[in-house]
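>> received
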Amino acid sequence: MALTLKRLGLTADILTLVGLVMAVAAAYVIATGHFLIAVAMLIACGVPDLLDGPLAKAQGTASNRGAFFDSVADRVTDALLFGGIAWYLAGQADPRLAVLPLAVLGVSFLVSYERAKAESLGYVAKGGLMERAERIVLLGVAFLASFLLVPILWTMLVLVGATAVQRFVRVWRQASGAPQRSARRLVVTRAGERRGSSERADGAAPLSGRLPIHAGAWRQGLVESRWREWREQRLRRSADRRRGRVTHERRPDRARASGRDGTSRRADGGSRAPVPARERRASERDA
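>> returned
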């Protein structure tokens, strides 16, 4: 399918935009209570989201920009779908039920935020009982059997909340166990590139290469501060300059004392013409 879309000249960004347009239409259909049509629109929203990634890989255009755009589009799609459900429930017998889909939406955003923040800190927060794919499937079931809409929303709220707690506990354990698993130190090369080395507590071979630096390492003293690096560099540079200055000042004294330059010094501090080697040897024999 991705190769076919590639031959048609479509791009991953176009598919993402098509999915957003379908989400707007699906939100309107849901808000008006046409749930059977909403099922078809829900499928129309999900298909572009499934194909934009493989299409980007087939075209060789996969990038961080595309991944960011796709993630933002997913959040907008979720807001539109649950917003449509809230609009529909607000016009029913009990308008207070309109808060229920908004609660599911808020906890869903919390689940997504936990993963994004954990990955930015170098941890893993994938998985859970109710991810985005499961939420979309349950919404389709609720639209097919509209009398189950409210019970399914309650079920989603419980499961999504459990997923948020599950991811929080998982990242908490990773962050708490990181100092005991390994002690990382930074090696600053001459080029200024930071590289991490790890000494494992179990006696295994040390790890080498690039290691992620997370915020907790700063508090634990595992990451050398930039101020300390700058101060040490200044000290080294000043020491090198002093060493070079002393060496430059002492060389003429040694040459003057040993007479290696072949010149004779006058009493007034000036220098005469170089003395030939024969005359020097003759004067040494006479002496």
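>> The chain is about 70% helix and 5% strand.
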